[in-house]
Amino acid sequence: MDFFLNHSTLLICLILILPALCYSQTFISKAGYYNTDDGMGNPKGVCGYEEYGRTVNNGEVCAVSRRLFKNGAGCGGCYQVRCRNKGFCSQEGVKVMPTDYGEGHGTDFTLSYRAFAKLAKQSSMAQVLFAKGTVDVEYRRISCRYGANLMLKIHERSTYPDYITLVVMNQGGASDILALEVYEEETSSRISMRRAYGAVWDLSNPPNGDLQVRFLISAAAQTKWVQSEIVVIPAEWTVGETIETDVQLS
Fold this sequence. Notes:
This protein is an alpha+beta fold. The protein is 17% helix and 35% strand. The longest helix is centred in the first third of the chain and has 22 residues, at 2-23.
């Protein structure tokens, strides 16, 4: 009997403690909004996503402050953002993806019009939030849960074969990409790419031949290399080409 009671007590403690641990990962800030013709994302965001940055995550995207932008490493992650006015705001809030940098008046998030509207408890209450302009929020980093692999787009600024620029898309996980390297098997050469800006990486005079790619990611205060095991970039790559890797960040 004592054995049963002890384990029941432990179970109750876990039920009570785990939500508290989750809450400890929640941060307090403010959020504003910006508008576009269609209420979706800004295709000119400094993450470099262009049209993908307008429509990704159903246009529920945002610009983030310097400390969340992390010189571009914060591009493509996801946050659950919830405003704190219980009279007007939904319990769930909205899941947003950073596609741009921007801050002001103590805000960490500037949401797209579509994303900001989803903070409201009901659609009829959204105009109350828009009238405020800036609202108090709480937020936490989450996985985007795409179920999709990382994608690399060969940017239009690339010039075959002398200069290649890659845009990393479908980052998806609750982790940041800190570095990117390409590897050419024939010469056994591994070369670091430069973060040009946002999620855009470039390299002058890339190696000849098919290239593999690996990513240095940071998650839970730890870093590790994640290697693509397939040939990602063909020897004769073309500008504008989008290539799927076999890497998926959790």
